[in-house]
Every structure is written in structure tokens, then in C-alpha cells.
Amino acid sequence: MKKVLFSLVFAFAAMSGWAQGIMGKWITEAGDAQVEIYQQGDKINGKIVWLQQGPETKDKHNPDNKLKERKLMGVNILSGLSKSKDKWEGGKIYNPKNGKTYKCTIWLEGNNLKVRGYLGIFYETQTWKRK
User: Beta-carbon neighbour count of residue 94 at 10 Å?
Assistant: First the structure.
């Protein structure tokens, strides 16, 4: 009986950890922003919820002149990611530091989130820490 109870408790704990997965708040590698990853329909997105430079920081590098004056707080920098085995792929990441958007893949590695942006065959990977 104890073995069955232990197995059930362990299974529920494992499932709750998996369910949490990538959802939640993450500090970027530079430590200058916090991104909240959430699910919308069958896609995963991530929006800026904190900025070291403050909540009034504008999207001044955006290539769309109409968006250069918008505040970065609340802007989705991750969008359209779909689960594929142990990764989330097929989405985009927006880099407000240069105003460019890249293809993106993210995955968990231990307690860290790996965030990889692609430009053709070239890529850069960052490690984000859970808040």
C-alpha cells in the first residue's frame, strides 16, 4: 500500500512539474528584462513584464515608424511557438535592442530555458533563468 501511495504522489509531482514546464516568468540572460511565457490557444507566446530601464522604455529600434513610440512593457517578444517533442519551435523572437525578428526555438535544460534565435544557418542561444 505504501508503494502505491508513494508512486501516486511521485506521479502527481512529476506531472505538475511538467505542466508548469516553460510557463511562467523568466529573466533574460542579460538580466535586463523579465518575460512571461504563456499559452494562447495551441501556441506559446512570451511578453515583457519588467524592464531594468523602467516601464516607460520605448520600442525605439522598431523598423515600423508607427511602433517606435510604443512602450515595450507588454510587447510579445516570443510568438507562435508549438510543441515538438521536447522543444517548442516554429515561432519568432523579436529583439527590441535591434528591432529585428528571428525564427526561434526554445527548450528546457534543467531549471533553465534555452532560447535560440536563427538567421538563416546562423544562430545565437541564450540561457534564461526562472523568476
Answer: 22
